[in-house]
Amino acid sequence: MKNIGWIVATGLVLATVASAQSALPHPTADAQALDLAKRAIALRSVAGPGNKTPEVAALYKAALVAGGFADRDVEITAVGDTAYLIGTWPGTDPRLKPLVISGHMDVVEAKPSDWQRDPFVPVVENGYLYGRGATDMKLDGSIAIAALTELRRQGYKPRRTIVIEFSGDEETAMKTSAIIAEKLKNADLVLNIDGGGGVLDEKTGKPEYFTWQGAEKTYADFEITITNPGGHSSAPRIVNAIVQMSRALERIGAYRFKPELSPLTRTALTAAAPYEEVAIGKAMLAFVANPADQQAIATLVGNPSTVGRIGTTCVPTMVSGGHALNALPQKVVANINCRIFPGHKPADIMAELQRAAAEPAASFKDVTEGSVPNDASPMRADFIAAVEKAMHKIYPGLPVFPSQASGASDSMWFRYHNVPSYGASPTFLKESDDFSHGLNERTPVMNIAPGITYYLSLFADLSK
After folding, report:
1. Nearest to 84 by CA among 161, 174, 14
2. Peptidase M20 dimerisation domain location, by residue (predicted)?
3. Same domain, yes or no: 102 and 195
4. CA quadruple 99, 189, 55, 140: dihedral positive or negative?
């Protein structure tokens, strides 16, 4: 899972960012990051037959060991057709809880016949690195590995142990994600390099702002079932399971959960408002001032990009029912997919849906897989100061503020264990150029040099 960012071209540095990227103080790390990313993209780490995630793990381990990690401190563990990696750089003070750098090695399926280029043959063209995983998230992982190698090359010695880990099925079942979080639940803080990011202005290409991700909504699936005796369609009954389900789904579709704010979303909405369309920005500020402002709520609920920022959302996504064209339906099943605002239990949301459906014959069941409830991470002053310092080293004065994601990431599993986790990727893209999970995925290679500078600062400050 990757958040929004910005895009620039390679070769000649664009004037909009020239001052930030005029010097390359770590050319060895820059070259390593690009080479490692290309080699990782070439490995088809997709769940199922031929999954090469274990080979990506071996590639990453080799890079870490070559960069100074002891072989015994980089462990690869197989899980089914995938694997996960945990590398440890021991700190000088074993009393301190470790800093964890978190990422994943697997990618979403990509069919070569659908792409303009083979998704598993990495290529750099016109300043972009093309290939599945270029954005989500093999380039980010490679930049982080290169930054750690550069820190060791510079002779840095962390006081706090640094752990870098990569899960192997973040895009699917998240079994390795859960295992890693259980193993590292004693961590002080997690930097999830698969979240957060910066935004470029669509017209000028100038960096507008950077967000770090401090929370994400809980994913949940609730199954609704209605059963009836059935019978011959020539003798219809007053009660029909399909009609009952239709009425229940219509009520659920019209239902709106109470809009709400958290300290994090209050800050995020206030800071993001100037970058939105005028009407949306005004509504965001009005909602922050008064969460009961019905006009502001209507504006935000009516916009797909903002409806999820102000509360829980639930929508019907699948329906199946009946068993024959000439028979009364005996059973109808529907799925309701929810993205739950932090601080709520799935059971409470399911009960609220049941009341909204107002259908006594409907039974509700939580059928969620691969997700656990999690609350927002605290707005820790040390993390905020470190991320702002790191970002301002590459883009002085750039606005930096928090965000909340609607999708799930490995942060969920750490927050489930009450470990603060923050999306902190330094990758910038135009919103219109975010192709993660889609066709022709690409990321500008000019993110590499500033990304390493950013990581060098962030990793060092949080492990001192």
Report:
1. 174
2. 215-362
3. yes
4. negative
